[in-house]
Each structure stands twice: as structure tokens, then as C-alpha cells.
Amino acid sequence: MKQEVELEIFEDPRALASGFALWFYNFVNSRPKTNVALSGGSTPKLFFQVLSNEYKDRIDWSGIQFFWGDERCVPPDHQDSNYLMTRKNLFDHIGIPSKNVHRILGESDPEKEAQRYGQEIGDVLSHRDSLPVFDLIILGLGSDGHTASIFPDQMHLLQDAGYCQVAIHPDSGQQRITLTGKVINQADNICFLVAGEGKSGVVGEILNKTGDWEKYPASYIHNSGGSLHWFLDRGAASVFQNGKN
Ligand SMILES: O=C1O[C@H](COP(=O)(O)O)[C@@H](O)[C@H](O)[C@H]1O
């Protein structure tokens, strides 16, 4: 059965960050406890800033367990670290207990860390059909169609066993640790957060199922039975809206 995608389009990156922060606030406040996997890269930065500024005192942060969908294999103070970006823009500004922050140890041996982090996820989350279930996974999208750190030349990561695996950035060769597709698709709610015209081509192909859509890992993110949202700004949505790819 084809899954309905819930789509929201905002005027610009700032409006997207505000709109998604409001959605996130309603989501976490509608339940006593939430486990969330965050995306990395640059797109969530504005969203984290809105949360720190406008929702700092309106969210019970102690009820949220934070994980990541992927991490670069670098120390936590390295400029590429997804954890560092989140810490600087969100965690340093809110009262989050350290036990609620489940960081991927990018400085550790990648294979061992993929196993260890998978174990940590398995210990904290409840399971359905032998897979851990995130309440919410926030995902970004690369202009090459990658999501989390599942790249087009590593499609096997969508199906691989294990909760986490080591991935390699196809251009830089940088090692990454990523959730596998099976774990992502087991989440109850998945939200893509995508901004900018640079992503509009790939967004259009994925959502309209045109062009090279079958080559993009993000095309295979469909959570069975849960909700799948795409939050876009006008730039990212432009090709999709014109239907011209
Ligand atoms: O490398 C990554 O890329 C994607 C997209 O990043 P962005 O900078 O274009 O927002 C991101 O979702 C992923 O977590 C990250 O590690």
C-alpha cells in the first residue's frame, strides 16, 4: 500500500525552522516521554536555535531521550561533528540532563562504535518485530539523495542487518556511523527537514517519482503504519511544485 506523505511548505528557511519547531513542540508535549533521533549537517541549525530561544521553558526536556541518525567519525569538538552542532545550538541553552543525550562516539573505532551504539539503542527503546522503535526520526537530505549517512553507492545500508553500520562519504572518504534503513523505517514518525533550492531537483524527483528517484536512498524511507512528513521551504519545494523534473 502506498504511504501518504504529509507535506508542509514554508516561505523560507526561517519560517521552516519555526514551523517545524511548533510541530516538534506539539509532538513532544502530547506524550509523557519521547525518544528522538536527530539529523546532522547544517539544516537543523535554525530549528535548534528556535527551540532554544522560543521553547526553552515550554518543553519538559527531561522527558526526551536524544539520539542521532548519523555521525561523522570525528571527535565531539571537531567542526564536522553532528553532536557539536547540536550542543552549540541547542543543548548548551536548555536544561537537558546528560543521561538523556545518547551521543554516537565519533572518536571511537567505527566498527566497534556502530555495534556499541546499536546496543545502546536496543537497551533504551522498546521493540516491535525485533527492531527498536523511535517515536520520531528527523532526517535531512543531501543533494545526492542521501539521508542519514546512507549514500547512493551504499544502498545495502537500507537493508543491512544491525541497527547501525559504518558508512563512507563517497567524495571525502570520511567514515560515518549511520542508522540502517530497517531501523529508520521502523520509526513511528519520520520527518524530513529540507531547505534551499540546491535540494529542489532531488526533492522533486523523489516526491514526483521521476528522473533518477530510484537511485536515491531517501526514496526508500517509508515507515510502515507510521506517519511520514516532509517539511520544506519554497526553495526546496520549487521543482516539486512545478512538476517539471
Ligand atoms: O552529511 C549529512 O548530510 C545530510 C544533509 O546535510 P545538510 O548539511 O545538507 O543539511 C544530513 O541530514 C546528515 O545527517 C549529515 O550527516
TrEMBL record:
Keywords: Hydrolase. Residues 15-230 form the Glucosamine/galactosamine-6-phosphate isomerase domain. SUPFAM superfamilies: NagB/RpiA/CoA transferase-like. InterPro entries: 6-phosphogluconolactonase_DevB, 6PGL, Glc/Gal-6P_isomerase, NagB/RpiA_transferase-like. CDD domains: 6PGL. Pathway: Carbohydrate degradation; pentose phosphate pathway; D-ribulose 5-phosphate from D-glucose 6-phosphate (oxidative stage): step 2/3. It holds the Pfam family Glucosamine_iso. It catalyses: 6-phospho-D-glucono-1,5-lactone + H2O = 6-phospho-D-gluconate + H(+). It comes from the Bacteria. Belongs to the glucosamine/galactosamine-6-phosphate isomerase family. 6-phosphogluconolactonase subfamily. Hydrolysis of 6-phosphogluconolactone to 6-phosphogluconate. This is 6-phosphogluconolactonase.
